[in-house]
Amino acid sequence: MKKHLLAVALAVGATLGLASTASAQTVSIATLPQGSVWNTMGNVIAGAVREDGVRMVVQPYGGNLAMMQALEQGLAEFSINDINDVIAAAEGIDHYDGQAQSNLRILAKINPLPIGLYVRTDSGMTNMADLDGRRVSSGWDGFPLANSHVSALLATGGLTYDDVEGVPTPGLIRGSDDLAAGRTEAAFFAVGGPKVAEVNATVGGVRFLQGASDDATLATIQAIRPAFYFSEVQPAPFRVGIEEPMMMVTWDNVLVAGAHVSDETVMALLASMAERQSDMAEAFPPFGAFGIERSYVDYPGATYHPGAIAFFEERGIALQDF
User: Fold this and answer.
1) pLDDT tens across 234-254, in order?
2) What pTM value is reported for the model?
């Protein structure tokens, strides 16, 4: 096995002509704080690609804006983000108003990420419409991305923020802490997030709320963010709070780089991730949905890194419709 891994590492370096470069350079991947899905994914990626000489460190930031600014300014090389947020950042809209991030480049789709609002099991709530008049995290000064996402989730229950009692919350992790402490009655998080499992253990059980997923509701959420869609989520041990199959608002996680990152570094990273997919899935099951042959997607308003384009073209992988 060790001989096989060494052969792979040498093959990657030889093919791309960068064995010494990859091992000499340390790159960083910007994520949200510890406890978030993206931080977990960043650590798994960093651990896997080091086996092939790609030295990567994980750098947590307080929110999406800070993550994208780090790439824009050359303070980090890579990040994981919601494709909708990357589109908004590139266009300079919403919480990026007047701050268009022109140096963001897509590398690959990683996996779909269903999101939801979750509640304590003993709350008795099961449907998104049950939140009418309830206390829900709001504000999100440190994580403004959540405003649009929670708005989309509430819409699946026929609600808006005007129908709930908003409780100001600075960020993602704090929102879940507020639920555990009883300051709110619903928190926003991605399915499979370690923080959800932590709150589940603290309060004696949590569940994600079910919402509508018909064509009219799809049109409503896509008016909020163009790359939202619905996917069916099955119960699994790592999907805490999912008690039965549910249709949930979903986005695609994408790997992003700054325009300053070299083609060679991008190609080395993607080659290593392709080879290490099974290792990453073993460490964090959502990586089971990652596959290079499904990772080249034509997202609206997205610009691919030339190194990623070269990587996919070399492997005969065509750009796929969103």
Assistant:
1) 999 989 999 999 999 999 999
2) 0.79
